[in-house]
Amino acid sequence: MRKVILLVILCNFQSLFAQNDIEKKISLHFENSTKLEVIKRIEELSNYKFYFIEDWLDDKTISGNYNNVNLPILLDKIFNNTLVNYYITADNKVILTLNNLIHDSLPDGFFGDLKENIAEYEETSPVFYNQESSLEKSVVETVRIGKETKESLQKNYKLTGYVKNLNTNEPIPNLAIVVQNKNINALTNNKGYYSIQLPPGVNYIETKALGIKSLIKKVIIYNNGTLNFNLREDSEILDEVIIEANQERNVKEALTGVTQLKVEEIKSIPLVLGERDILKVATTMPGIKTAGEGSSGYNVRGGKEDQNLILLDNAVLYNPAHFFGIFSALNPFTSGDVNIYKGNMPAEYGGRLSSVFEINTKNGNNQNFSGEASLGPVTSNLTLELPVVKDKASLIVGARGTYSDWILKSIDEESIKNSEASFFDIVAKYNHEINDKNNIEATGYYSKDAFSITSDSLYSYNNRLFSLKWNHSFNDKNSGSLIIANSEYRFNIDYDGEIDSDFNLGYKINETELKFKMKYIHSEKHKFDYGISSKLFLVNPGTIEPKGTESIVEQFNIPKEKAIESAVFISDNFKVNEKLLFNIGIRYSLYSSLGEASQRVYAKGLPRNEGTVRDTLNFAKNEVAKTYGGPEFRTSARYFLTPSFSIKGSFNSTFQYIHTLSNNTTVSPTDTWKLSDLNIKPQQAKQYSLGFYKNLNGNLYELSLEGYFKKSKNILDYKVGAELLLNENIETEVLQGEGKAYGVEFLIKKTKGKLNGWLGYSYSRSFVKLDSEFGEERVNSGEYFPSNFDKPHDLSLITNYKITKRYSFSANFTYQTGRPITYPIGKYIYNGEERVLYSDRNKFRIPDYYRFDIGFNVEGNHKIKKFAHSFWNISIYNVLGRNNPYSVFFVTEKGKIKAYQSSIFSIPIPTITYNFKF
């Protein structure tokens, strides 16, 4: 003990002498000199001697002019923004160190109370060990982070960085950053960035991800800093490759009602005509339905088809279907991840009541030229990936087309034989990583459908969209994106009938959005998302013009519509503790209907018709005709009952300022969109949900049980016999009422093993109420009645069994309750004519729907050196030949009422598709 006290006294004396010596003044002027040159000048002008390793000093030049300053002041200026520290001894020696400080005294309280602790010291023998000796034997790179200062007193320091794949130069998401023997870990996000808290000193960090070669680094951290990883793919031959990214997302996240689809997983699911279809697979998940086979719309938790916001790289896709709804308009070869929010929407999204389909196009390969193609009986698909700037920029281009006319012409039925149907779509995405802080993404998409069921009419419609996104990382805590997107949907009817009635009819909607959003990582407890957005709507509701000089059709244009919808939003992912997590958000939206426009004013308390018009208001160009808006709340919470079992609840409120107009039960290409205005109010909804989520056997099984209740108002419906097309006073044909929906959804999913797949079941109801004191505006006596898409029972079973590494068998089974329909229940004579008496609206149902599909999949050989990897899919759609009704309708023929049923596929449809990837 005496030796220790003597050492401390000597150190204090030495420090005292050194302090007296340090007070010597130095005058020095240097310009554009390296640090090594400045150090040599100091040695020449004084009696100081420096000791260091030259590699520690960079070649950057510095300038300065100092008169009569202490040496520490001068050294602080020279080594500012570097990792170099210094220590000045009593005999004028200056010892430079890298990162760390040399201490000449022990901190206060180092020995504690000797009297109280001496017994403990006597009983405990010192232990000496070689820390991580097994790691030291192998070659482990040592990395020093930050610079130790006298103020460095934190218990932990933040290490952040970016992880990328050296083979593709793409970010590696969901990679584990593990600190050995310290129970500290983190995951990279979708952009490859991570953040982790480390104690000061030595830490052994290991990276872990499936298919990526692990790497260990010895990190000595002194302060906050950055460490990037460039990792290579693991080329080991594995018995089985299992992708487990986001494997606990369903249990850990606070958001409810989120469905995530992986495009690679759907390639073996047997679908109609062998076409991989992302959105068709989505309908096998609980809570997502279609009104019928061949319908192009999607009903999510009892909502209408127009209540879904479908986004492709942040741009709206208005009609997501091809070929009468049989195929989706999304190319599976270019699509990356798909997230469907049907419960609690993120605060950045708005404008729809039911759901958000967030579809992202994957980045192209920026290392090597590659591609993927498929050849089927009806469609073909080709996707190419091209490196534009190696390691930095890439382009992916995908194109699909159909050659289905040969099938239609081979059918004996004359009415079908003379029909036509075709489509194509093309998508391209350019991705450029400018540097570690900036990258840009640009996507373009175009699709076109044309079909003719009768010989005198040709229908066509197309989607066009473009988006540009600039991602910027400001620092470790702040990052943001600036997004510009434009979408357009239009359809056209080219009628070529009798020579004096030919015409062209067209419709178009265009929207442009500008959005700025930010992410701020305040701490481990608070992570904020906030931003602002604004979109401009331009609608051409309809134009009809004569075709040819002999046509008697008069040209007619419905006045154009214009509106702007803006919003500000913020949300906080608030981690209260390890068990409780909140996601609290608010969005305030403001909508304005703009001129140039004329708006009718109707008498209050009376039905809207020609006889109740009281005034017509005219609005100049860009003048505000009507404003709507309000707060939208997005709140959800998750609580861990056990580490693999959580309970979640949420509340979601939304506005929708745009509506579809259609006389059909299902979405059709001729549906038009109507903006809210003086007479048509925006739709509103509130949804409550509660769910339980459990993972079993190391995430081998995922279980979820979730219930919801949704109440809505101002839901748009139509009067009996409404005329919607080319009607400039559409408010006289529509009704706005209340809606309610509720249900329970169950999902069990097996993610690994030879047998995998999922079973989804939902019991749900959807009702509409159209009440008024006037009979012409009241439906079903003003009581709630089932909506067109009310299907209480919905069950889907998706299975895949791997026989060997190359051969697998797959099967689907789907069952749904038949949708509601209005039947004739009698007839009566009016003015000498026999007329039909119909039941209350949607009182009956068409027969239940069920379908069984099977498929056999053959992977190509697994040779390492080959031009391409092939994949065969042999499937039979509707193997039982079930004649599922698409619709049931009634026709009066020769005084008698006859019922007809139409079906899309009433027989088994065999398909063989060849895919290859190079």
Description:
- This protein has nine helices and 57 strands.
- The N and C termini lie far apart (74 Å).
- The protein folds into three domains: 9-105, 3-Layer(bab) Sandwich (Phage tail protein beta-alpha-beta fold); 133-231, Immunoglobulin-like; 250-917, Maltoporin, Chain A (Beta Barrel), CATH 2.40.170.
- 8% of the residues lie in helices and 52% in strands.
- The chain has 918 residues and is mostly beta strands.
- It has a 22-stranded antiparallel β-barrel.
Distance between the termini: 74 Å
Output the number of helix runs. Answer: 9
User: Radius of gyration in whole Å, from Cα?
Assistant: 35 Å
Helix content range: under 10%
CATH architecture of the largest domain: Beta Barrel
Q: Which CATH class of the largest domain applies here?
A: Mainly Beta
Q: What general form does the structure show?
A: elongated
* Largest sheet data: 22 strands, antiparallel, barrel
Query: How many domain units?
Result: 3
The CATH topology annotation of the largest domain reads as Maltoporin, Chain A
Overall pLDDT confidence: 83
Indicate the multimeric state: single chain
The assigned structural class equals mainly beta
Strand content: over 45%
Count all strands and give the number.
57
Look at the structure and name the CATH superfamily of the largest domain: TonB-dependent receptor, beta-barrel domain
